[in-house]
Amino acid sequence: MISSVAFVQWACTTSVDFSLAQLIQVMILLSTGGANGGGYLASKYVVLAIYTAILIVHGLINSLPIQWLSWFGQLGAFWNVAGRMIHPIVSMYCGIYIRSTTNVFKIYLMVFQKRKIYLIVCSI
Q1: Would residue 52 count as lying in a domain?
Q2: pLDDT tens digit string along 31-80?
Q3: Does 69 fall in a domain?
Q4: Which residues contact 112 (CB under 8 A, 6 or more apart)?
Q5: Is pTM, for the whole model, over 0.70?
Q6: Which residues 6+ apart lie within 8 Å of 47 measured at CB?
């Protein structure tokens, strides 16, 4: 008999994978021109194929040894930290309106001094 915890974990995994398949469908649609611009809208069968591929990859990842999963976790943590350091710098230099760093942080300080509770809530 399958326990209710295992069923909930299975249901959560499959629903998140299906949401990822739908997200990929929307990303393809928007990158090819959008709904009004004649973009490619994947059919429900293509979304089902994407969903099946994601489930298979997810199952293969779950069957890997714990040492490999640990390595993937460390790689993900490094990628997250590197992205958080690089993203603000790239955003300031590649943005449409290039502002000096003094100007950018002056605006943030003005906003956060007025709304300190907002800063506390955002940091949680």
Answers
A1: yes
A2: 888 778 778 888 999 999 999 999 999 889 889 999 999 999 999 999 99
A3: no
A4: 118, 119
A5: no
A6: 21, 22, 25
